[in-house]
Amino acid sequence: MHDDLTNFPGAQPPRREPVHGRYVDLEPIDPTVHGDALFSAVSAPDGIEERFRYLPQTPQTERSDFDSWIAEAATSSDPLFFAVVDRSTGRAEGRQALMRIDAANGVMEIGHILWGPGLARTRAATEALFLCADLAFASGFRRFEWKCDDANAPSKAAAERFGFTFEGVFRQHLVYKGRNRDTAWFSIIDSEWPALRSAYEQWLDEANFYAAGGQRQSLRELIAAARRG
Fold it and tell me: How high is the mean pLDDT in each 10-residue block of the chain (229 residues)?
């Protein structure tokens, strides 16, 4: 923890530029570059209701609705939207955003996550999260947040798997889609990131996966070991 922040200079806000990984690249969202592939990913019928259940938008099954959304997303600086592009195919398979960017206090959140069927529950999706967290802390942010509807059990489980610490629930925090949202808060802080980063790097390494694709060690196990020191 930092006791004296008298000389804290603030963090560097994220730029609208690509972030490169080994399995995915995060590319600032661009309708002309990502529109076709991203629409295919977000509108895939398998699991579409669940993908959109806790997002502000309704399922984007009509191209005109999607085109309106992506045109607005491409000009937004907060949230700053990225397409998650599979490096092996060059196709955008999902999207996510950095948001509530408070560079003065060094706080930023990941949100608007929508990983299509080709990305969800893959090592590429985990890397997409890792790249945003690593960018945040490399840019001088002190706190990286994950928030979700408290009713969204899969999102809360994902936050814990990714190494976020549960901090509590803001009751009656929001109204969206005609219903109440109690918001569960999670965070990673800068002092925790070096150990978590090491765990991510071990997990993402090709050597951690069998030829058939199964993992030798889970990310949860590696994070727990990193926290024990």
Answer: 84 97 98 98 94 94 97 97 97 98 98 95 96 98 98 97 97 96 98 97 96 92 92
Q: How does DSSP assign 94-108, residue by residue?
A: EEEEEEEEETTTTEE
pTM score: 0.95
Burial classification of residue 3, based on how many CB atoms lie within 10 Å of its CB (0-12 exposed, 13-18 middle, 19 or more buried):
exposed
SS3 142: coil
Q: Cα(117)–Cα(51) distance, rounded to whole angstroms?
A: 9
CB atoms within 10 A of CB 180: 13
Q: Which two tokens stand for residue 12?
A: 């560097």
Distance CA 155, CA 14 (A): 24
